[in-house]
Amino acid sequence: MFDYRADELHCEDVPLTRIAAEVGTPAYVYSLAALRSAYRAYDRALAAVPHIVCYAIKANDTLAVIRAFAREGSGFDIVSGGELARALRAGADPKRIVFAGVGKQAAEMEAALRAGILMFNVESPAELEALAALAERLGTRAPIAIRVNPDVDPKTHPYISTGMKKSKFGVAIDAALELYARAAALPGLEVVGVDCHIGSQLTSIAPFLDAWARIRALVGDLRARGHRIRYVDLGGGLGITYRDETPPTYAAYGDAIADAVRGLDVTVLVEPGRSLVGNAGVLLAKVVYNKAGAAKRFVIVDAAMNDLIRPSLYEAYHDIRPVKRATKDGVHPVDVVGPICESGDFLAQDRPLPPVAAGDLLAVMSAGAYGFVMASNYNARPRPASVLVDGARFDVVRARETIADLMRGETVPTSLG
Length: 417
Ligand code: LLP
What we know:
This protein is an alpha/beta fold. The protein is built from 12 helices and 21 strands.
């Protein structure tokens, strides 16, 4: 949905130059058609099994994005009371919401219980007891799955691997039967499912197959012990192409899921985040200066690590494209950096780019997932505007923060004069 037309990069039918002129930079720009087509690809891939695609809101929690998926019939994966509130505000069906996370607090669990969510993905014995007590006090029963840790290596960045023994997430699969027995004995709980999630940006299907085979076996063991398992949540994690990665196709992914649950008579839940939004968004930035350092050339832009932290935090690669296709030949390696006072503030390093001049626009690609949501106000920088494109129209779906926004809620004690 982002392509060059007449040498100018467009999002759907809108030239990015127009958005920059009207909204300013930096700005996140999302394609509604890309969001929809990713959702529909998942839905189609899972057509052979009863399923709910639960969009993992953490990847991009813009209300308009959540709304777009809700209109497609999506379910949602949340990890906080804030995400619950966003989901409900955007019109999500609570009966299609699952709630994960290792540190759910009483107020968050209570809000989710009152909303009537589909299930809690419980991550520890302590959380299980707390949820059971809370539900009992409220005179209700909390539907739960236990998030089990299948101990497979997803072969992705260590910061985004979650399903190994050393991880803080989930419960060791060997300890699961005991915890399910405990859950069944607690009147505040109703066991309805099994959950796992092994990591993010997986580019091969093998780790999924290992994990899901273990989950399948566990479902059999649980049923043999009398638990009524209706939902199997297979997590998120399907990778996307940032550069030259070749993640499994939707068809291969869907077939693998169908195999994993064949004959089980369950509803499959999946919790994709990145693959639904990642390639549906770009971060639009403007060149401020060129700078020839002693050893390197720098292109200094008006977006920085506070706007998109992935390159700094994970050494992630994001393609960078000039919005006006270069007419001159030749590329030179440059570091594309922001104005923040840290050497770690870069969007790309040693990246071959055609020459650019102050005022030129660049699009940082594949920025729809874990972009804005991880943005901060470091260096007292207002967070960017967000724009949603739909065909030839676009809307600002989140206003650029103002300097006043940055100081909202602060007071200086009178004792300081
Ligand atoms: N479900 C659970 C329980 C998760 O922890 C996550 C992601 C997802 C689903 C969605 O995974 P996805 O389909 O997006 O891979 N900030 C990092 C990614 C962190 C992922 C955290 N958990 C990044 O920018 O790469």
